[in-house]
Design a protein that fits this description.
Layout lengths: L1 H23 L40
């Protein structure tokens, strides 16, 4: 009986919500854009000038 109720809840709540969200928006941006010259998503260069180390940090020097 529980499986039947869970299946009903899924098909009556989750499925329509998913279909409605796909009609309203395109989260993966898969719809073609006729005005676009490219589909690349530019994110910018990584900020290496802000003091980020180029490699792993060196271990601390201990004198003993």
């Amino acid at each position: 009986m529980q499986r039947l109720l869970l299946a009903l809840a899924y098909y009556l709540v989750v499925t329509p919500a998913g279909l409605l969200s796909r009609l309203v928006r395109d989260p993966l941006r898969r719809r073609p854009d006729g005005k676009a010259t490219t589909y690349w998503v530019f994110t910018g260069a990584p900020d290496t000038a802000a003091g980020a180390a180029a490699g792993p940090a060196a271990p601390p020097v201990t004198t003993g």
